[in-house]
Design goal:
Elements (H helix, E strand, L loop, with lengths): L1 H6 L7 H16 L9 E6 H18 L6 E6 L6 H9 L3 E4 L2 H9 L7 E3 L6 H10 L2 E4 L2 H13 L6 E6 L21 E2 L5 H11 L3 E5 L9 H22 L6 E3 L17 H11 L9 E4 L3 H4 L3 E13 L2 E6 L7 H5 L8 E4 L10 E7 L8 E9 L6 E4 L20 E5 L5 E5 L4 H7 L17
Parallel strand pairs: 1-17, 2-3, 2-10, 3-4, 4-5, 5-6, 6-7, 6-8, 8-9, 9-10, 12-14
Antiparallel strand pairs: 1-11, 11-12, 11-16, 13-16, 14-15, 17-18
Amino acid sequence: MGAHIEAEEADDTGAGRTARRDEAVRAAVEQGLLGPDSPIVGLLDVTGIRESAAALRAAFDAVAAPGTPVLHAFAVKATPLVPVLRLLREEGLGAEVASPGELALARAAGMPAEATVLDSPAKTPAELREALSLGIAVNADNPQELARIDTLTQTAASRSPLGIRVNPQVGGGSIEALSTATATSKFGVALRDEGAREWVVQAFLDRPWLTRLHTHTGSQGIPPALMARGVAETYALAEEINLRAGRHQVDTLDIGGGLPVNFASDATTPTYAQYARLLAEEVPGLFDGRYGLVTEFGRSLLAKHGTVVARVEYAKASGGRAVAVTHAGVQVAARTVYAPGSWPLRISAYDAKGRPKDGPVVVQDVAGPACFAGDLLAEGRSLPLLEQGDYAAALDTGAYYFAHHYGYNSLVRPGVYGFGPQGSFAVVRRAQTVREVVAESGGAQVNALTQPPFGPA
């Protein structure tokens, strides 16, 4: 059961990842990627990303019957960067997209249609039409969306695999906003609502071209045992549909993603291998070869392979507490700043040359550059004293922290670099310029509100 995962020792202590990160921070300073004129960067560990992708594939290969079709579709929302998606494609992964923008990113990365899945609770007719024309898999979120698909498939042929997303309503985890299988979740058809399960079964019986069921129990804060329970409920529904249809109509189960990340240390726990074994114990029929599988992991693939590094612009004291004022705050870590209890980040201290900082620890705040008091990456944290010109590194930020840029104070998006052996770097995303901030803020329309009909003729 769930205790099996919790008791089992993690497979990855993260020692190699820590060493690579330390080398990358030092090299970034030496090569000028970090410094007075470039006070914040994002770093991505290419070796670590490859290792996570390989671990995911190996974990499911170890429990699935030989020949079982398995697509690991990376949740693009976690790290929507084209070079990252291309790297994952080379590692055998696909893409799960939830907007026209994410689909465009996946296509720019060379993701083929057959390795792409569209999930969203608010797909427009245009989005559905594009997905169906490309042959991308689509999971209908609700009866109204299924009705739209009915109309579109009547007027145009499509090779898209089609299914329905269901909400097994098995409960939530420790972060309510990320719990997608609660009684009132906005996602999918709520199976325990009156008449809903029968509606789903009948929808399949009426449409032989519906061949997939999709579920996603949640993300960070959801224990693996609860995730497995959501998968088990969906598997049982697929068995019921196929029994009543008298044929193997549902041939693929999309079990979503959501494996939680350990933000407390460099260790990777739980691992994909542990989760796959738990699923095999709880839902053995899932892996006997009768069903193709789709997964949609995001955070767990990338989080531990990213680091936001920011220069300490000033070091001061307030009320007897040391405060390091850095260039990383709410603009890159909105969740941490606004909900630190749910999204705490580990901070590592580096000196002005990018070397790990030693010395007595001091209780201090690590503050960001935004003009409000709560813009803190960490509050009351015990670290070697950060001084002017040092660097504070926010760890485990490879997922979502490069996606959720918040334009407070019109702070620019930092550049992101992939790093490899011997201090090598590749530009993943160039730093935004102030000129680009002006352009995004209507710079080309400077007179729009002062000319007729809004201003004097």
